[in-house]
Design a protein that fits this description.
Structural class of chain B: alpha/beta
Order of helices and strands of chain B: HHEHEHEHEHHHHEHEHHHEHEH
Helix content of chain A: 55-70%
Oligomer: heterodimer
Number of strands of chain B: 8
Radius of gyration of chain A: 21 Å
Radius of gyration of chain B: 20 Å
Strand content of chain B: 5-15%
Distance between the termini of chain B: 37 Å
Order of helices and strands of chain A: HHEHEHHHEHEHHHHEHEHHHEHHEH
Distance between the termini of chain A: 60 Å
Number of helices of chain A: 18
Number of helices of chain B: 15
Structural class of chain A: alpha/beta
Strand order of the largest sheet of chain A: 2-1-3-4
Strand content of chain A: 5-15%
Largest sheet of chain B: 4 strands, parallel
Largest sheet of chain A: 4 strands, parallel
Shape of chain A: globular
Number of strands of chain A: 8
């Protein structure tokens, strides 16, 4: 039974509601997509608050766990890392209070700040306590180790999903089996039996959204790019939280309709598209990057690391095939997809993305907590040099603007565009 | 006394250099050497292929200038020193190197090694992070692929019979090392922590039969000697990859005698044996690493087993205080140190959390902290 500490989520909802009101009041600009996205995210957070108030089962999740399973079993989940990311986006100074709190208790400063933020939030009793935790051996060392600490702090049953370094059929079979073991764990601890027919319905709903998203991805290859890079971030967040729900499908339908209409009318995300930036690796939750790039530079991000995930339909022919498909979705998510295997996984995808989306340059959003990224950055720079791709590596803490400020990063991007891209 | 010193010198020499006499001799006789980056990679398979397994260290490295061209300041200094040495040719005697997903740093070191160095044989494995039966099956699969790639590259056949032989030899090593550790339970331990660490390291760099003979000689001789007394406290050292006897000696020079450990150059790799009753040798090795040994901090959900083991060791070896060392940027031991410090304090066991780099530096600061820790223990 979830208890207490929903203050942090309530704050998130309050801030999102306030942002929504501003958007709805702004009649000068078409804000339909942002409004729909915010409604989805508010709904998702409010469900958590309601679940806590009603004492329902709450499960904390690590990165990339398929929400479809929880939708099917009617179990309330909370993706801790995504949630922390949203909080940094809405109020960075709040996030840093929690980072300090974790460090003061001897968690090493080098631990990824998103984990420190979550652990600080738990210590401050600002996140509702769960009944269960789904952790995993992904997407990075900090997350693996951080969830060990989280599990020890809250002392509830934890299931660890083991994710190998490969992406071949053997790996898919193994992750499919791990997904089934995760479902058994949920059944055992919640007393609820997964209804396979219901899972099929949810998976089919999820597939519908995937199909729409695949079209959005294709349309974004157009020059000029029809939609803001900020929409990619929204699509990622909604997929992570709401996949399998009609609300998510409706959002992707709106997203596609908007993109299609803009392409038909040859309307770009900015009046004059000057630079197409491939945003490799994650973007900073703070700093309002996409709007700033578009406004100041006419620079559009047609595709980013997190949004480029391969679309994978869940084969709904059997329970095994659905488990395999849900497992594959975990493998396809962000850092889990690119961070766990050999560097070729990253390079191949980066090159394909750069070519397909007709990039003029690449920006690597280097997060200091992501050690795997920093161990391959020189290889990535070599690849960019060999291919003649102008590349900028941002060295920052994505969850802590005190380390490198928004202004300092913007100044770096200004110099990069001036000297490397528009020369 | 002389014989003990002679054997100890041989073993210590093997731990203080990379290309020690045993490796040189092996190479001179046409033998091939394969480096491995972690104790989770079974030496037994490499040895069964007629190759000498060599646990990777950066002993002798003085800087990371070349390593830093491909690794960053956010990567641990162990990998940076290893890469630096690789770029300088210090590992040119290796005919192969085996990596696995032990951590993000080592996994990416494989990527760099593969692109920038010319070691003839490289292999990367994916070792599970948890300890269930399905994970044993997965690792069995990875080890089978590894065995086949060794056979293909080196043109050898690794029979089950030979694998059982090497498993038995390595189990004998673990048994002898445990006997050595048992001598440290005494009121006056017969060997120091720095010596014990050197001896264990030596075992990862020389043919096991030769090592086992040396260890037997040492055990015979050592029992005739007086033990170490006059120390201020009995300590246990716990933490990440740690292959520096000089670090232990610094602690011991201040009066803190290290009597046991939980290290991968220590009890983490030697305390349990591979089960020789399992029907298949690869399965036995997979089971040992995934579920039987006390899990490294990279294994998820393993904290309670690790802590339970440490508490047992504290009792058995009459430990007065635990030194938790963690290398900077090691997420696994960073978090584990946080948990261990909390749990040990709750249990009333003095614990010191030390953050370190690969090379022993800041000796003054280290001495001050150890000194303060010893005083805390003495005041109890």
């Amino acid at each position: 039974m979830a208890t207490g500490g929903a203050g942090y989520i309530q704050e998130q909802v309050d801030r999102q509601r306030s942002a929504l009101q501003k958007l709805e009041a702004d009649s000068a600009v078409d804000r339909k997509i942002e409004i729909e996205a915010l409604k989805c995210l508010i709904d998702s957070s409010e469900k958590i608050i309601t679940a806590v108030a009603e004492g329902k089962t709450l499960v904390w999740l690590t990165a990339g766990i398929s929400p479809e399973i929880f939708v099917t079993m009617d179990i309330q989940s909370l993706n801790l890392l995504g949630f922390a990311r949203t909080m940094t986006e809405l109020r960075p100074e709040g996030a840093t209070e929690f980072i300090d709190r974790a460090e003061n208790l001897w968690l090493p400063p080098q631990t990824c700040s998103v984990l420190k933020m979550v652990i600080g939030g738990i210590l401050a009793e600002q996140i509702p306590t769960p009944d269960l935790i789904i952790a995993g051996s992904h997407p990075c060392d900090s997350a693996i180790a951080g969830f060990e600490v989280i599990g020890e702090l809250v002392k509830v049953p934890v299931f660890y999903l083991d994710i190998p370094s490969w992406k071949d059929d053997r790996t898919l079979d193994y992750v499919g089996s791990e997904t089934k073991r995760m479902i058994s764990f949920l059944e055992e601890h919640t007393g609820r039996k997964l209804d396979i027919g219901r899972l099929r319905d949810v998976a089919e709903e999820s597939n519908k959204a995937e199909e729409l998203y695949l079209e959005v991805k294709e349309i974004r290859k157009a020059v000029p790019c029809p939609q803001s890079g900020a929409f990619l971030r929204m699509a990622f967040a909604i997929r992570q939280r709401l996949a399998g729900l009609p609300m998510a499908t409706a959002f992707f339908r709106e997203l596609l309709a908007d993109a299609s209409e803009k392409v038909r009318s040859k309307k770009g995300a900015v009046p004059e598209e000057r630079i197409r930036v491939i945003w490799a690796d994650y973007d900073m939750p703070f700093g309002d990057w996409y709007n700033w790039l578009e406004r100041e530079w006419g620079a559009v991000v047609p595709m980013s690391f997190s949004a480029y995930r391969p679309v994978a339909y869940i084969d709904t022919s059997s329970y095994d095939s659905m488990a395999r498909g849900l497992g594959q979705n975990i493998l396809h998510t962000g850092m889990t997809r690119l961070n766990r295997g050999p560097v070729e996984y990253y390079i191949d995808e980066f090159i394909r993305m750069y070519k397909d989306y007709k990039g003029d340059c690449a920006i690597f959003g280097g997060h200091v907590g992501n050690k795997a990224f920093w161990a391959m950055i020189r290889i990535l720079k070599d690849v960019c040099r060999e291919m003649g791709i102008p590349a900028l590596v941002i060295e920052a803490d994505q969850y802590d603007p005190r380390v490198v400020s928004t202004e300092a990063i913007r100044s770096k991007i200004d110099d990069f565009f001036t000297m490397m891209v528009l020369r | 006394m002389d014989k003990k010193i002679g054997v100890l010198r041989q073993l210590t020499q093997a731990s203080h250099t990379l290309l020690n006499p045993a490796v040189k001799s092996w190479k001179e006789q046409g033998g091939k050497v394969v480096g491995l980056f972690c104790s989770y990679i079974p030496e037994e398979i490499i040895y069964a292929a007629g190759l000498l397994p060599f646990r990777m260290r950066a002993t002798g490295s003085e800087e990371t200038t070349l390593g830093d061209t491909y690794l960053s300041a956010y990567n641990c200094t162990f990998t940076r020193h290893c890469l630096d040495m690789a770029f300088r040719g210090s590992y040119d005697f290796l005919d192969g190197v085996v990596f696995f997903n032990s951590c993000d740093h080592i996994r990416r070191l494989y990527d760099i090694w593969k692109r920038k160095l010319n070691t003839p044989f490289l292999h990367l494995m994916s070792v599970p992070h948890k300890d269930g039966e399905e994970q044993v099956a997965w690792y069995r699969g990875e080890l089978t692929i590894f065995k086949e790639s060794l056979e293909k590259h080196f043109g050898v056949k690794i029979s089950d019979e030979r694998l059982w032989e090497t498993i038995s030899i390595h189990n004998q090593t673990r048994g002898l090392q445990k006997q050595l550790y048992a001598l440290r339970k005494r009121e006056s331990p017969l060997i120091t922590g720095a010596e014990a660490l050197s001896i264990v390291i030596a075992g990862t760099t020389m043919p096991k039969e030769q090592y086992n003979e040396l260890l037997k000689e040492l055990l015979d001789e050592i029992g005739k000697q007086d033990g170490n007394s006059g120390y201020r406290a009995r300590l246990m050292i716990v933490g990440s990859a740690f292959d520096d006897p000089a670090f232990v000696k610094t602690i011991e020079d201040l009066g803190g005698l290290v009597v046991t450990d939980f290290l991968c150059f220590g009890t983490g790799a030697l305390w349990n044996s591979v089960d020789e009753a399992v029907h298949d040798p690869i399965e036995a090795l997979a089971k040992y690493h995934v579920s039987d040994r006390i899990p490294c901090a990279r294994m998820v959900g393993g904290h309670s087993r690790r802590y339970g083991f440490i508490k047992d060791m504290v009792k058995t070896f009459k430990v007065d205080g635990v030194v938790c060392e963690r290398m900077k940027f090691c997420d696994f031991w960073g978090s584990e140190g946080f948990l261990l410090r909390r749990d040990l304090q709750e249990a009333g066991i003095p614990a010191l959390l030390l953050e370190r780099e690969y090379l022993l530096g800041g000796v003054g600061q280290l001495k001050t902290r150890i000194q303060a820790f010893l005083e805390t223990i003495e005041r109890r």
